[in-house]
Specification:
222 residues; alpha/beta; Rossmann fold; 8-stranded mixed sheet; 41% helix; SAM-dependent_MTases_sf; S-adenosylmethionine-dependent methyltransferase activity; ubiquinone; Methyltransf_11; Ubiquinone biosynthesis O-methyltransferase, mitochondrial
Length: 222
């Protein structure tokens, strides 16, 4: 199982589907969906991310917006994806409610979140400890399901594996997501190197890190 396979299964057939990519970043997922015929709209609060996504996927639509207040009418989309983004939202409960509004009842929202576990998390932790915000995202999802606002036909955990030739490549990866992390890296380079080398599994092609991901398919009830 991987994220793209899950998204494609959830929205099959994907061609022609109006999919909202919430927290689209530089447009990697948006491109994969657009290449398969989806009508993709992406939002992100970062202007640099929106520019990068628009350059990567010229056939998609991108807007700078918050997940908690999106500039779309009720029921605009056939579904939405929130990939590795909910834990970055200050109000994850509001983001889920807003996603439900813009897709409408009965239309799925795929939420994929990293857990506070795995070697990737261990390597990242001295740069930015996301233990609390990752837990808050999971709590928001659980509360939304328990409240009856969403049904959850699918809840699956799987692993993402990434290999980096060296520490520099890993640091490029994590600062591309959040450039503010550069300050923490500059403040403790020795500690960060030790955490990376302690967490990563070395191999012939570089250093392997594993991140467990939990995916929920949420269907708004109203």
């Amino acid at each position: 199982m991987d994220t793209l396979s899950l998204v494609l299964e959830t929205f099959a057939p994907i061609e022609g589907r109006r999919i909202l990519d919430i927290g689209c970043g530089s447009g990697v997922l948006a491109r994969a969906l657009a290449e398969r015929g989806a009508a993709v709209t992406g939002i992100d609060p970062g202007q640099a991310a929106i520019r990068a996504a628009a350059a990567r996927v010229p056939d998609a639509r991108f807007e700078r917006a918050s997940a908690e207040a999106m500039p779309f009418a009720d029921g605009t989309f056939d579904g939405a994806v929130i990939l590795n983004a909910l834990h970055h939202v200050p109000g994850p409960e509001s983001a889920l409610a807003e996603a439900a509004r813009v897709v409408g009842p009965g239309r799925p929202i795929v939420v994929v979140e990293p857990l506070a576990a795995g070697s990737f998390f261990a390597a990242l932790r001295p740069i930015e400890d996301e233990t609390a915000i990752r837990a808050a995202a999971q709590a928001a999802i659980a509360a939304a399901i328990a409240s009856g606002a969403f049904s959850c036909p699918r809840d699956v955990t799987f692993e993402r594996h990434e290999t980096f030739p060296d520490l520099a490549a890993f640091l490029d990866r994590v600062t591309a997501v959040d450039p503010a992390r550069k300050a923490a890296i500059a403040a403790d380079p020795a500690g960060i190197r030790a955490a990376f080398e302690g967490a990563a599994a070395p191999g012939e092609d570089g250093y392997r890190l594993t991140q467990p991901l939990r995916a929920h398919v949420l269907v708004p009830a109203r």
